[in-house]
Amino acid sequence: MDPQTAAGKDPQTAARMAPQTAAGKVLWHFSMSLDGFVAGPHHTMDWMTGATFRPGLVEEYAGTTGAVLGGRTGWDAYPDPGGIYGGAWQGPVFVLTHHPEDAHPTPGVTFLNCDVAEALRIALEAADGKNVEVFSPTIGRQLLERGLIDEIDLHIVPVLLGDGIRLFDNAGGAPVRLELLVGSDPRAAVDVRYRPVRSSDGTPPPDRPGN
To answer: Crossing angle, helix 116-127 and helix 137-145, to 10 degrees?
Structure first.
């Protein structure tokens, strides 16, 4: 059956994503590969090279973010708060870790060893009415399980990684239902269409069956 017929209306209206607002929200925010990875093996991020984003995106999120909450593994891979949004954002960063004693002291960064809900409370207080951005798959999943995530913000990059750090691992768990915040139907499937990039050296694609 045609999805439009089944739903009784067009599941995707010609609506743009509304700009993010600073409203004390908890955002699980990542750029993500098409196959669900937010970082490559060992937290590599070179797979994002050459990706383009809509104009004003960085400024939008930098202006609405009051604090960042992340995990120790991601911090150890990129221990520089000045790199957040390419340096366009400055503010309090909180890193949740089981061993804060061996973390290198960094201005603007607080290492926390507490329950994830308490870490979020501290971050929200520091955000002073703006949003807290969660930059950790593990912390995001734990907050989601407790009903403490307000929105999941994803920017899908046209690449397939096949390996790395997934946004959401929940083996054996029940599906987590979400509501789409674009368009008139919160249950609508989102259509994307890509084609593989052919070799830039002019190498022809492999013969197809029957050629």
So the answer is: 100
- Identify the pLDDT of residue 189: 94
pLDDT digit string (tens) for 84-117?
998 999 999 999 999 999 999 999 999 999 999 9
Give the C-alpha separation, 6 to 45, whole Å.
40
Query: How far apart (Å, rounded) are the C-alpha atoms in residues 87 and 78?
Result: 13
φ, ψ of residue 154 to 5 degrees: the values are -125, 140
HSE-CB of 92 using CA atoms within 13 angstroms: 18
Task: Report whether 196 contacts 68 (CB < 8 A).
Answer: no
Q: Which of 118, 45, 41 is nearest to 83 (CA)?
A: 45
Provide the 10 A C-beta neighbour count for residue 183.
Answer: 17
pTM listed for this prediction: 0.85
Residue type, 167: L
Spatial contact of 18 and 25, defined as CB atoms under 8 Å apart:
no
